[in-house]
């Protein structure tokens, strides 16, 4: 066997221990599951930036995966220019390593965190043409920035980036999207051959549920047995449509004193969102930072319902992974998302919650679920069933391993 065969290079900004970032957890689990079935896996990633930027060595081996962390850019990622500078710095360090990578890998796998990574991976693929290329799309830049009016649709930056996207996506052996709506968007916008587009949704490990942990955590946060606790976990920014979400929460808390709303996370608009609500409804709002995995697990088990939100213009561009985290834990979901979106498709297919677009609809669903324990329990059972069949870690990472193995076998036959 040549040194190239069954050797994979994974390029991602977020990786262990940055597992509070969904893409960090997903890429970690994907790489370790590849290694578990016999692939030799090298990961090139950034240093941790979540959970207070946990310290990590520049190189280590974990789960039989060789990890190399690149020097961080110290630009402000809350500003567009700072994010772009960090992307460029990360990408430049990868380009400088092309000579060392040449001839070593059968596959290079890159995710859209940072947004330039698919272009860097495609450039290496073109240089070392015997290396296969798998691109994983967790979001789509600059398209998401355009619909959020952060970039002009016909501006120079937009046109240049989209041209690079067409080139990178057209270079890939396979392009993985998070759902069928995103797949169809890529098909129509970037004209990627349909047989090279593969849907692999975000996934989760199967959690262990505990009644004792639920009761203990509710008591810790001061939630009474009859309180109906809704959880919003993760980032809060423009992509998440937080302005409309805030209106929905005001309408809900103002109409039903049984409802409590818990935030766990961060993001550029998190303080603005939570601060005003906490002042208006001090007894009904709980605010927490990003939590370590054990504390997050206890929190999710303690609440009654999970909330997902997206800007109404971002259908096909994002799929919040918290949706699957809620499914895995049997949480009914209230989704403030477009009717045609991967989140809506998931919830409707599973019959595990409600999809709404207005504050009135959101508040009505919350009041109904707070009063209807039977429907709440049925949604929870449906959520777990959907998770087990379609969104567990073992099911989803196996799809990616099969892609790599299938392509390798096809190539060896030709």
Question: What does it look like?
Answer:
Helix content is 47%, strand content 17%. The chain contains 16 helices and 14 strands. Strand 5 (107-111), helix 4 and strand 6 form a beta-alpha-beta unit. Helix 15 runs parallel beside helix 16. 46% of the residues are buried. Residues 408-414 have low confidence and may be disordered.
Mean pLDDT, to the nearest integer, reads 92
Number of domains: 2
For the record, give the distance between the C-alpha atoms at the N and C termini, rounded to a whole number: 17 Å
Query: What is the ordering of alpha helices and beta strands?
Result: EHEEEHHEHEHHEHEHEHEHEHEHEHEHHH
For the biggest β-sheet, the strand order reads 3-4-2-1-5-6-7-8
Task: Name the features.
single chain; 414 residues; alpha/beta; Rossmann fold; 2 domains; 6-stranded parallel β-sheet; 17% strand; globular; disordered C terminus
């Amino acid at each position: 066997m040549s040194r190239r065969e069954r050797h994979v290079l994974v390029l991602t900004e977020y990786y262990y221990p940055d597992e509070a970032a969904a893409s960090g957890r997903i890429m970690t689990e994907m790489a370790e599951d590849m290694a578990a079935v016999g692939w030799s896996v090298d990961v090139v990633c950034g240093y941790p930036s979540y959970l207070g930027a946990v310290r990590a060595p520049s190189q280590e081996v974990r789960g039989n995966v060789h990890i190399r962390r690149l020097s961080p850019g110290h630009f402000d990622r809350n500003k567009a220019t700072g994010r772009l500078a960090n992307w460029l710095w990360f990408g430049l360090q990868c380009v400088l390593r092309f000579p060392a990578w040449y001839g070593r890998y059968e596959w290079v796998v890159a995710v859209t965190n940072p947004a330039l990574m698919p272009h860097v991976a495609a450039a290496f693929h073109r240089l070392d043409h015997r290396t296969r290329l798998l691109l994983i799309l967790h979001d789509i830049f600059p398209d998401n920035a355009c619909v959020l009016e952060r970039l002009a649709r016909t501006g120079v930056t937009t046109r240049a980036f989209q041209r690079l996207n067409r080139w990178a996506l057209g270079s890939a052996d396979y392009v993985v999207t998070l759902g069928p709506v995103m797949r169809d968007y890529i098909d129509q916008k970037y004209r990627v051959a349909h047989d090279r587009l593969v849907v692999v949704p975000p996934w989760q490990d199967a959690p262990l549920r505990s009644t004792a942990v639920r009761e203990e955590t509710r008591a810790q946060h001061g939630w009474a047995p009859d309180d109906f606790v809704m959880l919003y976990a993760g980032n809060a920014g423009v992509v998440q449509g937080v302005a409309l979400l805030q209106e929905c929460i005001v309408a809900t808390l103002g109409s039903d004193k049984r409802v409590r709303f818990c935030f766990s996370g961060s993001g550029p608009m998190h303080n603005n969102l939570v601060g005003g609500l906490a002042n208006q409804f001090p007894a009904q709002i709980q605010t927490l930072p990003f939590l370590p995995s054990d504390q997050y697990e206890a929190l999710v088990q303690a609440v009654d319902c999970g909330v997902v939100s997206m800007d109404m213009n971002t259908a096909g561009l994002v799929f919040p992974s918290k949706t699957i985290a809620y499914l895995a834990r049997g949480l009914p979901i209230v989704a403030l998302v477009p009717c045609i979106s991967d989140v809506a498709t998931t919830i409707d297919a599973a019959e595990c919650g409600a999809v709404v677009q207005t504050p009135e609809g959101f508040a009505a669903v919350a009041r109904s679920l707070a009063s209807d324990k039977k429907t709440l329990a049925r949604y929870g059972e449906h959520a777990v069933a959907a998770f087990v069949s379609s969104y567990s870690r073992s099911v989803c990472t196996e799809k990616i391993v099969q892609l790599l193995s299938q392509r390798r076998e096809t190539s060896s036959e030709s």
